[in-house]
Design brief:
By secondary structure, the protein is mainly beta. Helices cover 4% and strands 54% of the residues.
């Protein structure tokens, strides 16, 4: 055994040396003050509290310190993107409507009715709608990223994986904190929480978040929104915990109120034939002839009840969430219209503009209601066999409004309206067994039956610009058996290996954006099959930890979102098959008494396996008769229909092959406190923005870093720090609108500021 330990220790040292760039996610500050060792990481992704080494699947976690570091500048949930292996998060809407990708699997659909293959679970409640998935991250105990299908214990559309957020629960001590930050661009970030016992049986915890920033982009044109990209975001969570004998209750109410502007779509900023920004580009300058605004209000409540009985527990989780959303923007990203006879722009040196038509639209969700109920029974004995069984119910009703505006009429009046309604009902029965064959070998398996039904209708009103369209209806249904089987073998008290095979399922989807089309599209259910194997080890006397996973998956009938080419429209298609394979590597280490580091690396090789599937590429390439040498440079092979291209053999969109992250922290005693310096870096490989390939829509490789210098004293009760995010001020196009004039979306600019935190 000593020889094996030496080999693993050398492996940990080699990994740490080999990858000098990586993650801010890991437990870089998990060392106990007394032992100088890394603490055990406890996860609950299998509905039990378990040491991460005993769970037969690939998992990464974010701890509170890491979350504080990444969100110092007031950034939203997208700050977690790339901070653990195989995770990408992006949005075409800004601080709302995040889109999640794990191992390359995600969904680029921008419709408010879009579904995603990555599940998000907040305090044990599935958040299905994109409008709920962006709830701010504050007063969080831990975030778990569960990779691979999670179709057994989490039954709502999670064939790619699950992100699980657990907020800090009420405790029996009177305590709390206040964290105040002030940054450039008028940024103010305030997070605070108070925990208070309320007698022998009750305790309460209240947490608030307030984030705001000034507009940082100016529009010089009249009759449009003048200043953009500022925001005012507020959220609150109040929890009450009750415990008496064998009964536990945890009650949660929460809400969010966001006001700001939508993403600024910037026309003509990609240099034709490349993926570089045009010469003369200025991020603070944004000439547009449209209006821009965005609001989101959401609220919810849940009751998590538990009865501790002889040898088993009974759980009930009841939740209700609602949201209202509105977002308006100038989608063409510029001004004017060739077809409308209006001078267009903006132009840049060597790249004249072409805006064929104006596109000023809005989407709203005046009504979203989600109700969920779970009943679960699970064993609590120390027997070799452990079990879980339960029932799950989900209902969602929503309305989506789509508006068009006449940019060239006084006041930009509305001249088009379409509406969607959808009612989704799903129920499931599930079970899971864990069996210790020997003290060192444990196997687990799960099974879930899911039944999904949707009722959908969409219609369009008549106007000066649009004809009336009578209601179009759809009622897709599907059922599925999902299962998984895994094994974990303990080689020593510090080293384990695992393997897992799992299936996942995503219900049928509907794309009903009929403002610019007369038909809807549907995608049938997709099903995933995944294999993975790996190891998890504590080495060097628990001063270092390393885990690694290799994986391979196949998705049948993969749901994809294709643009229409020349119109602001999406449609759903099913690819016959998509495959992915790769590896993930996570490592954390205490290098010396004052130095800690973490490293993460992943490789995701994805491919669409459908030789006959074709889509429409960027629309502006069709307008050469208006202006020569315009539009994007498509490199995909022509399709069977004129103006289309084949996408078989292409990688999945927004799926970088390589993702890496690295952190390094130095801490030393100064006076009566501790001085620390922390740097974190995240790298993403290049990726396709769309299903097809084009030179302009291949995102560049990116490397973004952060720096934090702080001082804490009074046993950590007080802390002051200065921070910088994207410290090299890297600026590049990370997403695009492809139907009009090389319109791009930028990454977050450099931010910096100071923070003060006081705890009691």
């Amino acid at each position: 055994m000593k020889k094996k330990t030496i080999k693993l220790s050398l492996l940990a040292v080699a990994v740490t040396a080999a990858f000098p760039m990586q993650s801010a996610h890991s437990q870089v500050n998990d060392a106990t003050a007394n032992s100088g060792q890394l603490q055990a990481v406890i996860v609950t992704g299998a509905r039990r509290s378990e040491n991460i080494k005993e769970v037969p699947q690939s998992i990464s976690t974010f701890n509170p310190e890491t979350l504080d570091t990444l969100s110092a500048s007031g950034q939203d949930i997208r700050a977690l993107s790339g901070r653990v292996p195989s995770l990408n998060i992006e949005s075409d809407f800004g601080r709302t409507f995040p889109r999640f990708y794990i191992r390359g699997l995600g969904n680029t659909d921008f419709d408010l009715n879009a579904s995603q293959p990555v599940g998000l679970v907040y305090d044990d409640v599935v958040q299905e709608s994109p409008m709920l998935k962006g709830f701010p991250v504050f007063d969080i105990e831990q975030v778990e990223v569960l990779r691979g299908p999670q179709g057994t214990l989490f039954g709502r559309n999670s064939p790619a994986g699950v992100m699980k957020f657990d907020s800090v629960k009420p405790g029996k001590r009177f305590e709390g904190y206040a964290n105040v930050g002030i940054g450039n661009n008028g940024a103010v970030n305030v997070e605070a929480a108070v925990n208070s016992p309320m007698g022998p049986d009750w305790s309460m915890r209240a947490a608030v978040l307030m984030q705001r920033a000034n507009d940082r982009v100016h529009n010089p044109l009249p009759d449009a929104t003048k200043d953009l990209e500022g925001y005012d975001d507020k959220a609150v969570r109040i929890q009450a915990a009750y415990k008496n004998g064998g009964f536990n209750g945890l009650f949660n109410v929460h809400g969010r109120d966001y006001k700001g502007t939508a993403t600024t779509f910037r026309a003509n900023i990609i240099k034709r034939g490349t993926n570089e920004l045009v010469d003369g580009f200025d991020a603070s300058y944004y000439p547009t002839d449209g209006y821009n605004s965005q609001t989101l209000q959401s609220s919810g409540a849940s009751a998590r009840l538990r009865w501790d009985l002889d040898g088993y527990t009974v759980h009930s989780i009841t939740a209700y969430d609602t949201a209202k959303f509105y977002s308006r923007g100038d989608v063409d990203g510029g001004f004017g219209s060739r077809f409308g006879g209006k001078p267009d722009g903006p132009s840049y040196p060597g790249q004249p503009s072409l805006i064929p038509f104006d596109a000023q639209t809005a989407d709203g969700m005046p009504n979203l209601k989600q109700t969920t109920q779970e009943f679960r029974v699970q064993s609590t004995t120390k027997d070799a066999l452990q079990w879980i069984g339960g029932l799950y119910y989900f209902n969602e009703t929503l309305q989506v409004d789509s508006f068009n505006y006449d940019t060239f009429a006084p006041g930009d009046p509305q001249n088009g309206y379409a509406v969607q309604h959808q009612d989704t009902t799903s129920w499931a029965a599930f079970g899971s067994l864990n069996y210790a064959v020997t003290p060192d070998l444990k196997i687990r398996g799960g099974l879930r039956y899911t039944d999904d039904k949707k009722k959908f209708d969409a219609s369009r009103d008549a106007s000066a610009a649009f004809t009336k369209l009578a209601p179009i209806t759809a009622n897709p249904e599907a059922t599925d058996w999902s299962w998984d089987l895994g094994a974990n073998y303990t080689l020593s008290k510090d080293v384990s290996v695992f393997t897992r095979v799992a299936t996942g399922y995503r219900a049928p989807s509907i794309q009903g954006r009929i403002l610019f089309a007369d038909t809807i599209s549907q995608a049938t259910a997709e099903k995933a099959l995944s294999f993975e194997a790996g190891f998890k080890a504590d080495v060097l006397d628990k001063t270092a930890r390393i885990s690694g996973t290799v994986f391979s998956y196949t998705v049948k009938d993969l749901q994809l979102t294709a643009g229409s080419g020349a119109v602001n429209q999406n449609r759903l298609v099913n690819a016959k098959e998509a495959v992915g394979q790769g590896f993930e590597l996570d490592a954390q280490a205490i290098i010396a008494r004052d130095w800690k580091t973490s490293i993460g690396l992943s490789y995701n090789d994805t491919e669409i396996k459908d030789a006959t599937l074709f889509v429409s590429p960027c629309g502006n390439a069709n307008f050469q008769f208006l202006q020569a040498n315009t539009g994007c440079t498509v490199t995909s092979k022509p399709g069977p229909v004129a103006g289309t291209v084949l996408i078989g053999g292409n990688p999945l969109p927004r799926a970088p092959k390589w993702v890496a992250n690295w952190t390094l922290k130095y801490t030393t005693s100064v006076g009566n406190g501790d001085l620390y310096v922390l740097t974190d870096w995240a790298y993403k490989d290049e990726y396709n923005m769309f299903l097809y390939e084009a030179k302009e829509y291949r995102a560049k490789r990116s490397l973004e870093g952060g720096l934090r210098v702080g001082y804490s004293w009074a046993d950590g009760r007080y802390e002051v720090a200065v921070y910088g995010r994207n410290i090299t001020n890297q600026q590049q196009v990370v997403a695009a609108i492809d139907f009009d004039n090389l319109t791009g979306i930028l990454n977050e600019p450099r931010s910096y500021g100071v923070q003060f935190k006081a705890s009691f």
